[in-house]
Amino acid sequence: MVNNDRQVVIITDANNGIGFHMASALLDEGYRVAAFDLAGDNLEELQKSFPDNLLFCKTDVTQDPEVRESVEKVIQKWGQIDILVNNACLAIFAPFEMKDIEDTRREFEVNYFGYVRMINAVLPYMKARRKGIIHNVSSGVGITGFPGIYGYSSTKGAIEALTLTLSYEFARYGISVTVMHPPLTNTKSASPLGIPSQVMADPADVGRALAKKVLSTKWVITPNLQTRIYLFIARRFPHAIGKLMGKMTEREKRKS
């Protein structure tokens, strides 16, 4: 990872999990990081260590005014935005028949429209400089599906299509748009799946690995070779992989 203290990175959902550890790793490398989240309690120690390079912006990505105001704070402080990591996430676990449609709307407001709002807000500044990178954090379940999280899976499938489309549109401006694919990680959003934590990746490891690739403009970015191989297989056999993951989860639930 290039140490460049002029690079400004916005990370949404940066107070916990993968986003928090990405922010920490990037600060260690000299990047300037704007952490967008509803809460900033976990960022307090980082703020003490990096008072000039960390900016916490209390932001609800479902609210247009808050998104615009937070992005403007970043511009006022550092004058530029080089990289956006769209990482905000909401996963509500429930079978289709037991889930209120309003819950699904909430998932789309955070996981899809939250990404769109952030992109809309940073795009003028990236276009003005004719450069920038937008990373949209996705998930394998957007390719394979997964029982009990149809809303979350649908949002991630939509993110795959959004990223492809914007990568074509924004290329003329010198802006790259990618999908970041973490493995199944022990985060709050993954906890309802019922998968034992010991078989999931550590968010600290995943966050640090993805931080090392924050300057990458490849269409698909993964933290390691194993995740890349899994995605290769999942894209070719989505139905088989989805069924297998669902059965494995049910088996683990019965054991527990």
Largest sheet: 7 strands, parallel
Shape: globular
- Compute the number of strand runs: 7
* CATH-defined topology: Rossmann fold
How many angstroms separate the termini?
41 Å
The CATH homologous superfamily: NAD(P)-binding Rossmann-like Domain
Query: How much of the sequence is in beta strands?
Result: 5-15%
Radius of gyration over all CA atoms, rounded: 18 Å
- Structural class of the secondary structure composition? alpha/beta
Helix content: 40-55%
Major beta sheet, strand line-up: 3-2-1-4-5-6-7
> Mean pLDDT across all residues, rounded?
91
Order of helices and strands: EHEHEHEHHEHHEHEHH
Number of alpha- plus pi-helical segments: 10
Can you tell me the residue ranges where pLDDT is under 50 for at least 5 consecutive residues? none
CATH architecture: 3-Layer(aba) Sandwich
Question: Which class in CATH terms?
Answer: Alpha Beta
